[in-house]
Design goal:
alpha/beta, TIM Barrel, Alpha-Beta Plaits, 4-stranded antiparallel β-sheet, 11 helices, 18 strands, binds flavin mononucleotide
Length: 403
């Protein structure tokens, strides 16, 4: 149960969320009992997994998951070859109606995908009738090809994005419409403008990153191995967070539209970072698939403590607050020289800083003393920070260069 008592509510397109955290369209929202369990554990909102019309066939393949692991850390990146929900609109509209009846204060959103104008509009009408709060449109489903290139995602076509957004918006009489895009484009700002020009109420940025998750060097088959063959996965989880942050920052710096973030958050701090670069709410998927619904307690507690610490009344006060700190490379100051500096009692003498600086930096670290402690030659050190990033013991930090 949530232990904090602070009001964490936030307004998103006129819909009140109890806190800025919700479940994204994915396996955790593809089953009625699972969404009930999520709501019972404190999640205030959920986007039910993408559904379509009854005639759309969804042909799933197993195994569908693989992951990037590193040094024993599990799921740095999660790859999936899942498709949209096997449950069509007839099932999902029932679920949405049931959830709204049982949990009237919770936000129920449904993700939809059509292939024709009539389908998109039909889905919108049925979900509005079922009582959902928000309609999210997946323009980034791997099988949703309505773009200009065969096989391309809808959001990879600027024209199609604007046109289909307009169709959905003209059918929606009550619910805010959110368009879920893909970060896999050359210019995300153009896509976001197309979403805005099409009339959408908000944008969901972004989604998984098309990836090849690895290759089994014994069998030569890439992952996941489906009877000797594989295909490209969508990668989610912590590995994609920096791409999400860049996507959010670019959109919110150029297009005036509310954003719900997706892609990489695990902790409350990840979510705060996303809000600081423009997100109003933050969606979670991989973190829940890894650690379960109960992470909502830490998310809410962490956010509450952070707001207290920063003396901020509401989560909304965070939105976009770091954007002004992002400038062009040419505008960054060149006159504040920093150098790396050792915190001696933390050093574990692993030599990694020395090796990295010797072979990949500026040969500014020496190991010539009896004690084997790294010594920084502040004349040679330009302050590139490579040594800080490789140190496993946080024994190096940046400091002002000696005068
Ligand atoms: C197995 C799996 C299935 C997914 N299915 C959908 C889907 O049906 N519709 C959709 O819009 N996004 C889908 N997603 C994407 C997630 O909603 C989310 O945007 C993505 O995983 C990035 O967030 P994360 O890093 O928190 O996982 C799926 C993700 C996973 C891992």
């Amino acid at each position: 149960m949530i232990t904090h008592e602070r009001d964490l509510s936030i307004d998103f397109c006129g819909v009140k969320f109890p806190n800025p955290f919700l479940l994204s369209a994915a396996p955790p929202t593809d089953d009625l009992d699972m969404v009930r369990a999520a709501f019972d554990s404190g999640w205030g909102g959920a986007v039910l997994k993408t559904t379509s019309v009854e005639t759309e066939s969804v042909d799933l393949v197993y195994p569908m998951m693989s992951a990037v692991h590193q040094d024993g850390a599990r799921i740095i990146g999660l790859g999936n070859i899942d498709l949209i929900s096997e449950h069509h609109i007839d099932v999902v509209e029932q679920r949405a109606a049931t959830l709204k009846k049982e949990y009237p204060a919770h936000v129920v959103s449904v993700s939809i995908m059509g292939t024709k104008k009539e389908e998109w509009q039909h889905l919108v009408r049925r979900l509005e009738d079922a009582g959902v709060d928000v309609i999210e449109c997946s323009f980034s489903c791997p099988q949703g090809s309505m773009g200009e290139e065969p096989g391309a995602m809808l959001a990879q076509s600027i024209d199609a994005t604007e046109r289909v957004t307009g169709w959905v918006k003209s059918a929606a009489k009550r619910c805010p419409v959110v368009i879920k895009i893909t970060p896999q484009v050359t210019d995300i700002v153009k896509v976001a403008r197309a979403v805005k020009n099409g009339g959408a109420d908000a944008i969901c940025a972004a989604n998984t990153i098309p990836s090849l998750m690895g290759v089994d060097t014994d069998t030569l088959v890439p992952y996941p191995d489906v009877v000797g063959y594989s295909t490209y996965s969508g990668m989610s989880g912590p590995a994609v967070k920096p791409i999400t942050l860049r996507t959010l920052a670019e959109i919110s710096s150029h297009v005036d539209i509310p954003i719900t973030a997706t892609g990489g958050p695990v902790t409350w701090r990840d979510a705060v970072e996303m809000m600081l670069v423009g997100a109003t709410t933050v969606q979670f998927c991989t973190a829940v698939m890894h650690f379960g619904f109960d992470i909502i307690d830490d998310l809410c507690d962490g956010l509450a403590f952070y707001l207290d610490e920063k003396d901020l009344a509401q989560p909304a006060a965070l939105i976009g607050k770091s954007l002004q700190r992002i400038v062009g490379h040419g505008e960054l100051r060149r006159d504040a020289k920093m150098v790396s500096s050792l915190i001696e009692d933390r050093c574990v003498k692993c030599d990694l800083c020395y090796i990295a600086c010797r072979d990949g930096g500026h040969q500014a670290i020496k190991l010539d003393g009896q004690d084997r402690l790294p010594r920084i030659d502040t004349e040679r050190c330009p302050g590139c920070r490579l040594c800080v990033t490789v140190c496993p013991a946080e024994a190096l930090e940046m400091a002002k260069a000696p005068a």
